[in-house]
């Protein structure tokens, strides 16, 4: 497979972002064949120092920075800023996730780069966007989950607000950013003009809560916490078996009739409390007791076999390990092995979209810190070895690290801290 066989072959991305949302955006573009040049400060992306570690490399950094080249540039130096601007002048896309105003101070703001390259698509990912009273606030996933109603809607009705068990605000912001970049590139093909793509994690997280937002927009009411059940349908949620939990999704009378037959409880069909979806939801507790009277006498596997045979949507509650090691995940190729810089093998996620006209997308290892500084400056800017050496001597660019994440002493400390 060659890059020319992928949809974004020929697109060059300069990635100033770090940690999660911005790097995921550019990683998704790299998956599709874009050339992604990651610009890192001399100390590297913060994610290089965050565990878990394998073979001296951060697993989180490796996943979010697959398919990239690493160039170390000190943007606080005048020569470093000039190098970065020269690289962006030749690029199709820039991705950054500084707080508003920081990129401008570093000489890589949209106005500065668009003046050099009017066709540039420039994506900014920040906590609250480029405008609004909170625009200069820092943001973390827990802050966004709290502020956007996600925690308020998650958890048991009589329990505390609960975090979703993933950094969903970061992830969905990275996905929306990549979507925005692709839309802007498509428009550029028609107009020849670039644009500034402004992605706020606040906006993206609210957009993620599509049903919560729709319910409020329609009724003016917010949804309370309902735990592992559906707010307006039943039986729709998690139930107990003898050795664990399973979920079912029954949204109409036809499926409810099948369920009643499968669990040997045909009397439910003559009970007015369960005559409609709305009635079943109002009497969910009584219905749950009847279902679990049957399921608690069976294993999760037995429950799934019986209900699947009856044509009822049902599934076991699995761990991430079980999901990723399943035959379905293997068939879809959601994880792949890639060689590290030292020859070992690391498992990396593949992006999930399949294209009939293209082969499987690209997945290569994350770069060592500064690994491609010399080669990129030589190939893209035409700098000679002596010029690169002078820039390195002046501190404008970094020295390639032998260890892709952190030095060995710090690595051991991090492994201990995150064990």
From TrEMBL:
GO terms for molecular function: CoA-transferase activity. The keyword Lipid metabolism does not apply. It comes from the Bacteria. InterPro entries: CoA-transferase_III_domain, CoA-Trfase_fam_III, CoA-Trfase_III_dom3_sf, CoA-Trfase_III_dom_1_sf. The keyword ATP-binding does not apply. Keywords: Transferase. Gene3D superfamilies: Crotonobetainyl-coa:carnitine coa-transferase, domain 1, formyl-coa transferase, domain 3. This is CoA transferase.
